[in-house]
Amino acid sequence: MYINLGLIGSPLNHTFSPFIHNYFLYxxxxxxxxxxxxxxxxxxxxxxxxxxxxxxxxxxxxxPYKQEVMQFCSELDITAKSIGAVNTLHFTDNGIIGHxxxxxxxxxxxxxxxxxxxxxxxxxxxxxxASRAVIPYLLMNKPEYFLIANRTxxxxxxxxxxxxxxxxxxxxxxxxxxxxxxxxxxTSMGVNGEPYTDYGFKIKEAAVDMIYRPxxxxxxxxxxxxxIKLVNGLxxxxxQAAGSFNIWTGxxxxxxxxxxxxxxxx
Length: 266
Ligand code: ATR
Fold this sequence. Notes:
Blueprint: E1 3-9, H1 17-27, E2 32-38, H2 44-53, E3 58-61, E4 75-76, H3 78-83, E5 88-92, E6 95-99, H4 102-112, E7 121-125, H5 134-140, E8 145-149, H6 153-160, E9 168-170, E10 179-185, E11 202-209, H7 218-221, E12 229-231, H8 234-249, H9 257-265
Parallel strand pairs: 1-2, 1-3, 4-6, 7-8, 7-10, 8-9, 10-11, 11-12
Antiparallel strand pairs: 3-5, 5-6
Helix pairs in contact: 1-8, 4-8
Residues 63, 126-130, 150-152, 155, 186-189 line the site of 2'-monophosphoadenosine-5'-diphosphate.
């Protein structure tokens, strides 16, 4: 049976997902294909109906439709509910199930880098969509101290309210002179290679960025001379894809990260 997979979002010019999933299909000896649909919001419903009509098995969802697609799901799994966004649609006989594998991707990114937030001082930079995958991980691996810094303070406040615990919030300008064990960048600053603002805080153990291009991102380059772990977002991208692929096909992929590092950076 041919396995139809795809991606919806906009823009999709720089997506790496077809490369990843077509490789997963090949590695699993499955016959199928993964294609991109750069659509407008007006085309969303008809595109999802088209997926059903042509018996698609699964579709990834990226910005700006991760929330919009939820209305078309007959069921949301616990990860999609806890994040409030769907990145994976699974077309089943019981309807469309919405999942979110970003939490798994983030978890695996830290796990494979030997980073654990348990009892550490952790700073989360940003309070947009990308920050949502960090929250469930921190619920499991509770830091000793947790601070969210965001340019728009109200968004940091909304995010902090997802926790039962008290979480401090501040603006990035208030971070001058502070010290953290682990800092996680989820802002989009640096996504086009522009420099990251140095807010003057120190990092003792690890700088983690959700951006993965270039390999040394603008945020990570600020700490390249410090003796700390520098982790970009490629592992998160690959592992969230492996999570989606597992939901659609039942195949448990162990991604060959060496292969992907070479493919993306060499
Ligand atoms: P995403 O879904 O990628 O997280 P988003 O929801 O638009 O995108 O969030 C982008 C995040 O990057 C936000 O936290 C944003 O801060 P604001 O909430 O104040 O907008 C942050 N961000 C983007 N550009 C920034 C910049 N130049 N300086 C500081 N923060 C920035």
